[in-house]
Amino acid sequence: MNRIIYGDNQFFGVNHVSDEKARNQSIKFREDESIVKTIRIAMDEGIDTFMCTTHERMFNISKLISNDVNMREGLTVYPCLPYAHKYANAVTELGIMGTLKQYMPLNIGEAFIKGGTAFFRKDYMKMMELLVDAELKMFKHINTPIIFLQNVITDLLLGLGMNEVLLSFKNYIETKYNAEAGFITMNMPLLMEALESVGVDDPIICSSINVDGFRMSGGKEAYENAMKNHDARIIAMQVFSGGSTSPDKALEYVCGLPAVESILFGASNRDNIRDTISRIRKFDKIVNHGEKNEILIHETI
Amino acid sequence: MIKIGLIGAGKMGISHLAILGAHKNVTVNAVAEKSGLVRDVLERYGSFKCYDDHNDLLNHSQTDAVVISVPTKFHAPVVRAVIERGIHVFVEKPFCLNPAEGEDLMNLAKIKNVINQVGYHNKFIKTFREARRILQENMLGEIKHFNGEQFGPVVTKAKELTWRSKSDEGGGCLMDYAAHLIDLINFVVGNISSIKSAELKSFYSHQVEDAVYALVKTSNGIGGTLNVNWSDETYRKMSTSITVMGTKGKMIVDGTELKLYFKDKPKDQSYSKGWNIRHINEFPSGVEYYLRGEEYSDQLDHFIQAVSGKAKNDINTFETAWKTDKIIDQIRTFKITA
Description:
heterodimer; A: about 300 residues; alpha/beta; TIM Barrel; eight-stranded parallel β-sheet; 15 helices; about 55% helix; B: about 350 residues; Rossmann fold; Dihydrodipicolinate Reductase, domain 2; 2 domains; eight-stranded mixed β-sheet; six-stranded parallel β-sheet
């Protein structure tokens, strides 16, 4: 995994600490082309990995990416599925059965209506696989070496104790897509134990990790201990805790964690993208060259 | 360990089940759910003991408390069956189809001395709690007006496939959605006591309203407006906000941000003259397990604490939820007579 990964929250109206800012950003990025343009800027600044949800707008954005030879060849995409709000809203409107009928591929949907629940009784995992396939269709012509399960689903399965389903997802991604599976979570210490219990070694995990302990369930210390006690390839997200910490303080903490392999961030313009990349590189250099004292002295002044 | 049963494993029920499943002090010993598919999945992959009928769950499993998340029209009979057995109860919002049912259950819960809580999760969001504190400490001076808004994309096209599109089953924007805002205004600003005007409007639904517009007054004489629309797809998810105008300043609060304007330096030293903005990440959270928002874990944790005798049963009681039911009823009645 690349050290720095570019995320998509700013494009689709997601902001963890301001609904108002989120709505304003969704207006700014109302055109798909403006999203693609911003991804090009990120590539210009040295980014080569884009992590995104399977939002319905990604259908067209993926098309625009695969039509651009530089992007098609230079950009790696990590899809995160499913786009949970689509299903959550559908369940409210249609119920659980209605939602399954709506999102199953057409021929399966018909069999489902004819056969009812008996159709799936034998093999619920087949149902999961069909939903995964439907979500991933949009990335057909794009390089997707790692495919993530979104935190709402990962954490739901975790809470329900359905650890085997997490394993089934991983196995399916590996065999069908020849890709690695990753898990996004808001409950990293619990997830690490759950994955270990079903024999998953060295999983890819993307989780909130920040100096303030924001969205780190069980507390920062539990996360630090989990990172020491379990092998995992970790992507840190929400490293700025939603923006309440100074960027230097935030990145000094995350860059100083040896278990964190990659840092995921989102930004909507060139200046902010460049600024974050250069700060990560600065702190990586300090950590790698043992110059930590120097920066601490500098910060004190 | 508290032994808890779940009745109703739909969208909210499954979310509650995951939170309870991850809770250190809880054992989920049974689930009652009508859908065979959901039961099958929960038994096969989650090792939950499942029943088709809630009476079987109540008769066969030794539960200390029950979480109920069935369609609203079943709230009253199921809640009654649970508290008559002396079992503590958490039920999803809104409380009941009508205030008479709610009043009966409120009194029964007192007689049976059971912990009772309703799932108005907004009260567990820290920005709204701080907003309530600011008003209780009169930091905005005399309150002249408030404006409550709630928007989201629930019904965005003409489809009517579940109970949510039937008014006599608890469907419709007023009972199923605006209930959140009414309950939250009761908590933050003061209990709404009268309706001055109300309009229920349909955008896509045929049998129920998709929007609620109302002019209301609280028992302490503050006038305000309600503007609720569940057919607004410019919102990615439900967004609830309250704006309050006072003689000493103004407050705009939603689930993520608290924006405060003080004309002069307020007595609380943590705020200053002019604009102050506090984001949700600035309020400490102690959840052990997170799913969709800290408030969902916090509300169940509060219930568990109350059942264990470690917290007072003082948030989202049947009594406060019944007050919300009464306002819903008044708004609906206003529509009919106008």
